[in-house]
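Q: A reviewer asked whether we had any structural model of the full assembly, not just the individual parts. We don't, so I'm hoping you can provide one. Inputs are below.
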Amino acid sequence: MWLSGALAKVGSSSSSCSSSMSMLLPSFLLIVHIYQVTATQAESLLPESIEASVVDLRDRGLKWLVTGRNSEFGWDLGDTPRVVLALSSSASQWPAQNDLEARLTVKQLELELLDKLLRHSVDPVTPARVSYFSLALNGACKDARNFYGHNLVASLEKHTADQDYPGYPEAFGFSLTALVSCLSGSHLHRRQVRHLIAIATDDEPVVDSIDTRSMAVMALECLRRKRHSETLVRHIGEALKKIARLQQPDGTFGNIHTTTVAVQAMALGSVVPGVEWNRTAAALALRTMQRPDGSFLDSVPATAEAVIAATTLLNGMGLLSLKRGRCSEGAESLKSTLSQPPLWTTYTVVQAQAPKSQLDTTTASSNNSPAPGALPQQSNSVVKLAGDTTMASVKYWIWIGPTPLTAQIYNISLSVPVNTTFFAVMRRAAELDPNFEFSSTVWPNGHYVHTISGHREQPIGYHYWLLYHLPTDPDPAAPPPTTFVAPAGVDKLLVQDRDVYLFWYKKL
Ligand SMILES: *[C@@H]1O[C@H](CO)[C@@H](O)[C@H](O)[C@H]1NC(C)=O
Ligand SMILES: *[C@@H]1O[C@H](CO)[C@@H](O)[C@H](O)[C@H]1NC(C)=O
Ligand SMILES: *[C@@H]1O[C@H](CO)[C@@H](O)[C@H](O)[C@H]1NC(C)=O
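A: Here is a predicted structure for the entire assembly that you could use as a starting point for your response.
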């Protein structure tokens, strides 16, 4: 209810600009769609001039994201769901019925997910990945509870139900899953809510990180908006105060990633009394972090997060607008005109490079579009997720620079199923932290990683990325000898519990 009211408000004040949208316009014009009524929920919590600059930041971020789309209307490196989250939470009408490019992106999102589900026996889909896809499906007006017969939300819930919380290794994943459940209309058990509260408020959260605490706050805030619980308000306030204390004099909360996630949590909690933070300084800090081209770190995930942070500052909703069925409740303009070409048809035609103006609008039908006005059916088929198997705790380090004592160092601890490939670990790390972003080329014998954290190998200067498999954490004072160089490629290395890997950018 809290959501449909807000959507109705937004829908009515911005529907005029969407109806004039032609499917032939270049994609970046979709930015015209974006929230014209930014201050309705947030009651002008930002000074007017700052608000205008946050709007500008968000729009330029979105424009950069859309420019980086690949020829299949998705984003490389598994980033399609991230961008869909940014687009659908920031644009009041995304995907608009007559916005062809948006609809091709939705189709690509579905194809990428189907591909993962079909191959899940060789490369299990992780709960975090399924969570992002589920939210993106909500955003794309599709149903994560009946995705071609798979109930993704039930899969996630089954996965968390099987965990023993005190030893549950992934507080971030748990919180993200809880957010998906809440937005998808599930009831969270008391035990789960207690665990979320613990993650959000403990002085030593299970994973000591601002990101995890912020994600837990977002899930709790989703529950609070459904239930109006005073107890939740108190716990959220406590968590927000802890995050607020970490705001730096320059307005940031640490690096770009941490800042964008923290801002999302803080901006959602604006109704919680007694929480003081400097919203203006955070907005200005985001502004400083944006590159002239509109991106953040030249990275799709970082830019998508920053766009969502900006949106949350503006509307106090952010990811919380991505509720299941959001397109069939209170937002008539999203579902009314059903005369658009079915997606499968347009996909085929575009593949064949036909001019878009000649689209055949007569055949085929698109699966699982929700019936107007009603929540769609849900499916019983539960996908087996990676985490339903034995987990391994893996540490992954990056050293950038030939001299370890002065190198840039990043580390991340992940929990993945035993026997996951190291390549999958890298992808997971990249999902969670943009410092672990990487690019690779595919050779007959597997993936060859040439760029990590923005550093590309330079054969001319003999700078290469060398992978080590170590018995303990690497020590810059005693760098590992080449005997620890990993014996196989990233696709052949199957991780075991307590494995330590190091990717070192060094001169050979
Ligand atoms: C918030 O930050 C802005 C910009 O850095 C600064 O001008 C302002 O004084 C700060 N407000 C408070 C209450 O600290
Ligand atoms: C490992 O990463 C965490 C989180 O980013 C950081 O706080 C910690 O200092 C890092 N440890 C080392 C030894 O670099
Ligand atoms: C991991 O792979 C090894 C070798 O293929 C196999 O023996 C072992 O049972 C696997 N472990 C799990 C938990 O799947």
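A: Points you may want to mention in the reply: DSSP finds 17 helices and seven strands in the chain. Residues 46-335 form a domain with the Glycosyltransferase fold (CATH 1.50.10.20).
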